[in-house]
Amino acid sequence: MKPSKDSSFKFIDLFAGIGGVRLGFQKNDGACVFSSEFDKHAQATYRTNHGEF
Description:
Layout: E1 9-14, H1 20-27, E2 30-36, H2 40-50
Parallel strand pairs: 1-2
């Protein structure tokens, strides 16, 4: 999901894991502009869940 110009706020998803926190922020009108995860297995799941690496 790309950041929307109409979002209430923007956030970065550090230590993202599989992106669970991101879902909550997005459901409250936030836009993720950057994410970072070190674990390769979590990265694969994050990509499946959010379409981004």
